[in-house]
Write a structure and sequence with these properties.
Keywords: Methyltransferase, Transferase. By secondary structure, the protein is of the alpha/beta class. It is built from twelve helices and nine strands. The chain has one domain: Rossmann fold (3-Layer(aba) Sandwich). The chain binds S-adenosylmethionine (SAM).
């Protein structure tokens, strides 16, 4: 049985390292100066080019926007630069302080707040848009975090929500039995996400010292669509591809446009309340 208090504490501890640090170290722009951060952001949006398609940056000027799960803060800062009235929320002080640092360096406005996606510390209908990429599947209660996103959106407002796919080619090839059992459970009406063991979690999220994220669940497109039923409009896209020693030699841009769109490791839901 999952103990939420312990998981929250573990998440707070694990994510202190600021997600993205591994890539920043690898490419040599892990400094805390404006130039290193700018280099990281350029790399980030080149590496995940579909983010510009799934987040409506150019429609958010003057809108109250909440990002949940900040990591390196590239999306938050891009939202602020696009003119959004930005609030960033994260369970761990590491990413919260990092966002404060980078916003003060660049002089872009916005606030960063510590708190959980499972109890968003804002009243009902506080926001015009929510962006949450790669966060809600770590919380321990995906359904509750989705209902929190719904609660803080005003009527007619939208959100971009990314969670990991249970039915990517990675999952089918490496864990065919688990994936088959999970798909069968969804077919028989269950919305319960699939919690991953140590190996599965390590493939998605490990820190630079090799520690593994305390909690990761994956979900199928069908189950996610059911969880998102409280929203009036929803479209779910598949995106992203895993690193691979052989297939990885194919240009990433090609892989994203073919493999990523069909079997992608991530599910991007674009929804409206
Ligand atoms: C994999 S990182 C994603 C960061 C960023 N959105 C990105 O795409 O690079 C997950 C982020 O979610 C945050 N997080 C984990 N559990 C959370 C929770 N219960 N509430 C709020 N944030 C949480 C972590 O601290 C971390 O910053």
């Amino acid at each position: 049985m999952l103990d939420q208090t312990i998981l929250d504490a573990d998440n707070r501890q694990f994510w202190q390292h600021v997600c993205g640090t591994k890539a920043a170290k690898l490419y040599g722009f892990d400094g805390d100066d404006a130039q290193s951060i700018g280099n990281f952001d350029r790399w980030f949006f080149d590496y995940y080019p579909y983010l510009r398609r799934f987040i409506p940056f150019n429609q958010l000027a003057g809108r109250r926007v909440l990002e949940i799960g900040l990591g390196y803060g590239s999306v938050s800062e891009a939202l602020s630069r696009a003119g959004a009235i930005l609030t960033g929320l994260d369970i761990s002080p590491g990413p919260v302080n990092w966002l404060r640092h980078r916003l003060s360096l660049s002089g872009t406005p916005g606030e960063a707040v510590e708190g959980s996606a499972l109890a968003i510390p804002f009243p009902d209908e506080s926001f015009d848009y929510v962006v949450t990429i790669g966060c809600l599947h770590h919380t321990g209660d995906l359904m509750k975090s989705i209902s929190e996103v719904h609660r803080v959106l005003r009527k007619g407002a939208g959100a971009t929500i990314m969670v990991y796919s249970a039915t990517s080619h990675l999952r089918w090839l490496k864990y065919p039995t688990d994936t088959f059992r999970y798909v069968r459970s969804v077919a028989s009406g269950s919305d319960k996400p699939l919690p991953l063991g140590k190996d599965g979690r390590a493939e998605f999220d490990a820190d630079p010292d090799g520690n593994i994220a305390p909690e990761v669940v994956v979900v199928s497109k069908t189950a996610l669509a059911r969880m998102l039923r409280p929203f009036s409009v929803q479209k779910i896209h598949r995106a992203n591809v895993p690193d691979h020693p052989i297939i990885g030699r194919i240009p990433r841009a090609w892989r994203l446009e073919s493999e990523g769109r069909i079997f992608g490791t991530d599910l991007y839901a674009i929804v409206k309340k």
